[in-house]
Amino acid sequence: MTREFPLFEIEEIGARSGNESSPQAGDKIALLGAAISAFGDMVAVIGGIIAIQEDQISDQQQAKQTADLQKQIDELKKQLDQNVSNSETSNKLLLQILDRLDR
C-alpha cells in the first residue's frame, strides 16, 4: 500500500516485503529535509540582516541625538559667556558709579 504526499510517496512498513527499502522514498525524504534545513538557514540569515540594520538605524539615531545635544550645549555655553560678560560689564559700571558718588 502506498500513500501519496505532494512531494513524495512513502510505502507503508507493512506493505514492504522483507528488509527492502525504496531508495526513491529515502532520497525524496532526504531532499525534503535538506530543503527544510536550507529554508531554516535562509530565515536565520534574514533575521541576522534585519538585526544588523536595526543596530545601524539605532546607531544613526544616537549619533544624531548626540550631535543635537552637543549643539545645544554649545549654544548654552555661548549664552553663559555672554551673560558673564554682561555681568562683568554691569559690575564695572556699578563700580564706576559708586566711585563717582564717593567723590
Residue-averaged pLDDT, rounded?
A: 82
**How widely separated are the two ends?**
125 Å
Query: How much helix, percentage-wise, in residues?
Result: over 70%
Task: Find the count of extended strands (DSSP E, 2+ residues).
Answer: 2
- Taking all Cα atoms into account, the compactness measure Rg is 40 Å
Strand order of the largest sheet: 1-2
Portion of residues in beta strands equals: 5-15%
Uncertain residue segments: none
**Structural class by helix and strand composition:** mainly alpha
Helical region count? Answer: 1
Summarize the helix and strand pattern as letters. Answer: EEH
Number of structural units classed as domains: 1
Main sheet overview: 2 strands, antiparallel
Q: Can you tell me the overall shape? A: rod-shaped
3D structure, described in words:
The protein has 103 residues and is mainly α. It has one domain (2-102). The chain is 78% helix and 6% strand. The chain has one helix at 23-102; strands spanning 2-4, 9-11. It has a two-stranded antiparallel sheet with strand order 1-2. A hairpin with a 4-residue loop joins strand 1 and strand 2. It is rod-shaped. The N and C termini lie far apart (125 Å). The model has no long low-confidence stretch (mean pLDDT 82).
